[in-house]
Amino acid sequence: MAPLELTLIVAATRQMGIGLNGTMPWTGLRKEMAYFRRVTTRTHASSGSPLNAVIMGRKTWDSIPSQFRPLKDRLNIVITRSAPAQPPRDVLATEPVRVSTLDQALAYARGHDIARVFVIGGAQIYDMAAQKAKRVLLTRIERDFECDTFFPIKLEGTQSAGWAKKSRDDLRAWTGEDVEEDGQVENDTKYHFEMWERE
Ligand code: NDP
Fold first, then answer.
1. Ligand 1 centroid vs 169 CA: distance in angstroms?
2. Short-list 183, 123, 139, 180, CA closest to 14
3. Whose CA is nearest to atom 46 of ligand 1?
4. What counts of helices (H) and strands (E) characterise the chain?
5. Which residues contact 132 (CB under 8 A, 6 or more apart)?
6. Ligand 1: residues within 6 Å at CB?
7. Residue 89: per-residue pLDDT
8. What is the pLDDT of residue 50?
9. Ligand 1 atom at minimal distance to the Cα of residue 23
10. How buried is residue 124: exposed, middle or buried, by Cβ count under 10 Å (0-12/13-18/19+)?
């Protein structure tokens, strides 16, 4: 069995801003949210597993409107210091699995026939996952929004540590998404989809 790879998925401004006051800094990027849903839900025939996992921090879990959580058709794992000593054996449709470390989250995913594992935020959990991450799916938002929370991994520039931007073809092959070369505009906001991998 191939080891599980960790993929981080994030939408960030040019300054790598990702959040404001416990929520997203922007609203109305429906197609961007649909991309997130498709990419994190889609499983690939070669994996043979029916389900992906999404790992998130407790604050990100709290930021999801209750009618949309757990994120459907994905195993939802929440990292919190108030996790029970033992995660449940059976996954409930109405509750996420709560664990207190990233290693516990990955062990849980390994034990539950998971195809792909996505870390979906926020900043504290991206930081926790930075060393183990193989790939970052970045939606680059080309508009300035006020933010108080930032993506902690430097993908480019002098402080970047061995990340390479992959081609559109590579992104298509891995995600199954045929993205626009020049990005797209929604609600007066231009953004485009990128994939970065460790060199
Ligand atoms: P997180 O979502 O990363 O959650 C933080 C929580 O995770 C902590 O309060 C704690 O939960 C738990 N945690 C953190 N470290 C540990 C540890 N070492 N051990 C156990 N549990 C730990 O919070 P952030 O504030 O960093 O990010 C939230 C912001 O990010 C929001 O504004 C959200 O909207 C935004 N966001 C943006 C995304 C984007 O793509 N633009 C994606 C996801 C989020 P507890 O307090 O329960 O112990």
1. 32
2. 139
3. 80
4. 5, 11
5. 6, 102, 106
6. 10-11, 18-19, 22-24, 56-60, 63, 79-82, 100, 120-125, 149
7. 82
8. 87
9. 34
10. middle
Q: How far is the C-alpha of 106 from the C-alpha of 37, rounded, in Å?
A: 21
Match 């409930």 to its residue by tokens: 92
ipTM value, please give it. Answer: 0.99
**What length does the chain have?**
199
3-class secondary structure, 158? coil
Low-confidence ranges of the chain (pLDDT < 70): 1-2
Q: Any idea which residue has 């389900």 for tokens?
A: 51
pLDDT of res. 154:
94
Q: What residue owns the CA closest to ligand 1's atom 34? A: 23
List of domains in the chain: 6-198 (3.40.430.10)
Mutate which of 59, 64, 98, 100 for ligand 1? The one with the most ligand atoms within 8 Å of its CB, which is: 59
**Residue closest by Cα to atom 35 of ligand 1:** 19
User: What pLDDT digit, counting tens, does each position of 19-71 carry?
Assistant: 999 999 999 999 999 999 999 999 987 777 889 999 999 999 999 999 999 99
